[in-house]
Amino acid sequence: MTSAALDLAPTVVLSALHTRRLGRRYEFLPSCASTNDQVAARAAHGAPEGLLVAADEQTHGRGRRGRVWHSPKGESLCFSLLLRPTLPAPRTAPLALLAGAALAEALAAFAFSPRLKWPNDILLDTADGLRKVAGILAEMAGTGERARHVVLGVGCNVNTLKFPELLAPVATSLRLVGGRELHRGTLLASFLDAFEPIYEELLAAGPSAGLARWRRHALLGQPCRVNLEPAPLEGIATGVDEAGALLLRTASGETIAVHAGEVSWL
């Protein structure tokens, strides 16, 4: 293991972890194509809930809609978590938002002020405006109306100092904003510690408490445009519902629940 990857070593992460279940089975990979793919393969062979796979680098990391996620060796925190929620498939929809709330709380504990952009982006304020520092990808497998498992993938730009030309105008890192190098293993453990109670609340009573935590960090109350077919929809983002849909109040006063789409702020 390289010295740069020591902060993600199992002994380091597990010693910092306070969860009861999530992350207790932890695998660290020096390199892989995608941690989501690694966990999905293990899930298909019966791996238990709570399995955590992290990598020092991903060669084919991805975000929503097949976008590439930049995750070079030693710079990013890239991991995936296996969940097996005993819920109907539609009730797993808020998981990406709940993970966003947990990551925002973990970053706040490191003295950052994250903002959450629906549905899966975590942003930080920079001299050039808000820039993306992390993203979440939830991929569900199920049979009929029942979720068999959900792979929850998280990518966070931790110690990156330079981005490719196409990403430079929209991305940032914790190190660029905070001015210091951060320990990836400590951040990973902090996320899991924050996420486990939110997830258990979802299973026991629904997403209300977790979504309330998401709203505390969310970009809301602003005009936005959602790119939908056949035409984009504009309005004021007022919140999210229990299904994780964005609530958009249009100029006519109607509130529309948007379940999918790309949001841009006006």
CATH superfamily of the largest domain: Bira Bifunctional Protein, Domain 2
Broad shape: globular
Poorly predicted ranges: none
Task: Quote the CATH topology of the largest domain.
Answer: BirA Bifunctional Protein, domain 2
Highest CATH level, the class of the largest domain: Alpha Beta
Category by helix and strand content = alpha+beta
Please indicate the percent range of residues in DSSP E strands (runs of 2 or more).
25-35%
Q: On the 0-100 scale, what is the average pLDDT?
A: 93
Q: What strand order characterises the main sheet?
A: 1-2-3-7-6-5-4
Return the domain count: 2
| Run of helices and strands | HEHEEHEEEEHHHEEEEE
Attribute tags:
26% helix, globular, 6 helices, 2 domains, 266 residues, five-stranded antiparallel beta sheet, BirA Bifunctional Protein, domain 2, alpha+beta, SH3 type barrels, 12 strands, seven-stranded mixed beta sheet, single chain
Q: Care to describe what's here?
A:
The chain has 266 residues and is α+β, with helices and mostly antiparallel strands. The chain folds into two domains: 3-217, BirA Bifunctional Protein, domain 2 (2-Layer Sandwich), CATH 3.30.930.10; 223-265, SH3 type barrels. The chain has six helices and twelve strands. The strands form two sheets. Strands 1-2-3-7-6-5-4 form a seven-stranded mixed sheet. It has a five-stranded antiparallel sheet with strand order 11-10-9-8-12, with no helix packed on it. α2 (35-44) links the parallel β1 (26-29) and β2 (52-55). It is globular, with a radius of gyration of 18 Å. It starts with 9 loop residues before the first helix and ends with a strand.
